[in-house]
Amino acid sequence: MEWVILAFIGLIAAILGSIMGLGGGIIVVPALMLLGEYSEILNGITPQVAVGTSLLVMIFTGLSSTLAYLKQKKVDVQSGLIFFIGSGPGALFGVWLNKGMNVEVFLIAFGSFIVIVSFILMVRRYVKPIKMAKRGIKRSYQNLDGKMVMYGYHPFIAITIAFFVGMFSGLFGIGGGSLMVPAMILLFAFPPHLAVATSMFLVFLSAIVSSISHISLGNVDWYYAIALIPGAWIGGQVGAAINRRLTSDTVVLMLRIFLIIIGVRLIYQGLASL
């Protein structure tokens, strides 16, 4: 039964993660931590194992989504590689921070982080993108309506933001897209569909760096990973297909409500354990 539940979690997390560019770890990690209370197989799972396993699974979610988005010509590969200059070292730093964190502190910190992310998702549509700086990288993209949209960023600012995104990825096993997508839309004027697709490319690259570090530290449970990966691969493809055909307003609303519930639940669990 646990295998079925894990496969389903991998599928749903990847679908939502691919649609929103989140990576799916923001669902997988709390799901593993919460299931640890009720399942004999998952009993006693540590934050380190939950994060390490989630990041390994996100390699497949990210790769699956990226391949689908590349076919749709929505991935800004150059920008993704520039962002990775910051997110790669940030991911390693996050893994180091995660190493000494106990369960109670992790649950409270991660729960608070999830609530903050839900707030970001709530306000991002009401905030107009900041105008591009005169200096920096300027790019164009033809959106779904056939209109040419201009966006851009200063490399130093982008790499700095990406470093902190990578840090949260390595620390919480979330992929970092929950922060990078709003940043790309609000700060750099990325078209939403392009931001999501490029974020999944960055999630893929960052997850490789983070998961290798966690594997070397023994923080990956291969039993959980094998159960999660098939759903994650299929979900990445499905999410990219849904993103192409539908607006994400309803998904954002549902995801925001879900994140608030999970975040509050994790905070309560952490405080109760103190």
UniProtKB/TrEMBL annotation:
Query: Origin, by domain of life?
Result: Bacteria
Record keywords, A-Z: Cell membrane, Membrane, Transmembrane, Transmembrane helix
**Does the record bear Membrane in its keywords?**
yes
Recorded GO CC terms: plasma membrane
Q: Which Pfam families match?
A: TauE
Q: How does it sit in the membrane?
A: Multi-pass membrane protein
Q: Which InterPro entries match?
A: TM_pro_TauE-like (IPR002781), TSUP/Inactive_protease-like (IPR051598)
Q: Determine if Transmembrane is one of this entry's keywords.
A: yes
Family the UniProt entry places it in: Belongs to the 4-toluene sulfonate uptake permease (TSUP) (TC 2.A.102) family.
Name of this chain's protein? Probable membrane transporter protein
Which species does the entry assign this protein to? Salipaludibacillus agaradhaerens (Bacillus agaradhaerens)
